[in-house]
Specification:
Length: 205
C-alpha cells in the first residue's frame, strides 16, 4: 500500500508523515532536502539553478516511487512526483525563472517517467492558507527558506488548488490544516486518522 502526502511548503507534510507512520506502522519515505546539493544555491539564484534543482527532485522522486513499488511494504511518502511536475516546475517557468527549452526538456522527462510509475493508493492533500504557511516556515527556521516570498507561496498555493481540483489518479483526501494542531492536539490527529481509516477500508472493498 502506498500513501502519499502532498501540500505546499510549510503545510505540515513531514510532521504528519511521521505521526501516521508511527500510528499505522508504515515505513516513511521523506523528501531529500538535507542532502540536496542544489537547494541553497537555488534559493539564492533561482533562475540559474531552477532546472538543476527540479531534475534532481524528479530523479530522486522517481527512484523513490520505484523502490516503493518494488518493496511490497505499506509506505507513506512525504510529497509526490506530481507536485514537482504540476506545481514547482511550471511555476518557475511562468515566473521566468526556467527557460522554455529547459521546461520542455523537463516536461518530456516527467511524461516518460509517469508512464512507469503508479499513482499512490491514497493521496492526502494538506490545504493551507498562505499566512499559516508563513508562520510554520518561520517556526521551523530553516536558513534556506528565509528568502521565500509571500508571492512565491501564493503562486504555489494557486497551482496546488488547480492540480487538486483535477486530480483523478486515485483516492484523494483533503485536510484543511489552518485550524488543526495535529502535533499537540490528539483529537485533531484522531479525526484525520478516522478519515484515513475510512478511505483505506474503501481500498479493500
Amino acid at each position: 500500500m502506498h500513501i502519499a502526502i502532498a501540500g505546499n511548503i510549510g503545510a505540515g507534510k513531514t510532521t504528519l508523515t511521521n505521526l501516521l507512520a508511527k500510528h499505522y506502522g508504515w515505513e516513511p519515505h521523506y523528501e531529500d532536502v538535507v542532502d540536496n546539493p542544489y537547494l541553497d544555491d537555488f534559493y539564492h539564484q533561482m533562475d540559474r539553478w531552477s532546472f538543476n534543482l527540479q531534475v534532481y527532485f524528479l530523479n530522486s522522486r522517481f527512484r523513490q516511487v520505484l523502490q516503493i513499488r518494488q518493496s511490497g511494504k505499506a509506505i507513506i511518502q512525504d510529497r509526490t512526483i506530481y507536485e514537482d511536475a504540476h506545481i514547482f516546475a511550471p511555476n518557475l517557468h511562468s515566473m521566468g525563472l526556467m527557460s522554455n527549452r529547459d521546461f520542455q526538456n523537463y516536461s518530456s522527462l516527467f511524461e516518460l517517467m509517469q508512464e512507469l510509475v503508479g499513482a499512490p493508493d491514497l493521496l492526502i492533500y494538506l490545504r493551507s492558507s498562505v499566512p499559516n504557511l508563513v508562520g510554520q516556515i518561520h517556526k521551523r527556521g530553516r536558513d534556506y527558506e528565509n528568502s521565500i516570498s509571500i508571492d512565491y507561496l501564493s503562486r504555489l498555493n494557486e497551482r496546488y488548488e488547480g492540480w487538486i481540483q483535477e486530480y483523478d489518479k486515485g483516492k484523494l483526501l483533503i485536510v484543511d490544516v489552518d485550524n488543526l494542531d495535529f502535533v499537540d492536539n490528539p483529537e485533531d490527529l484522531g479525526n484525520i486518522i478516522t478519515r484515513i481509516d475510512g478511505e483505506i477500508n474503501g481500498l479493500f472493498e
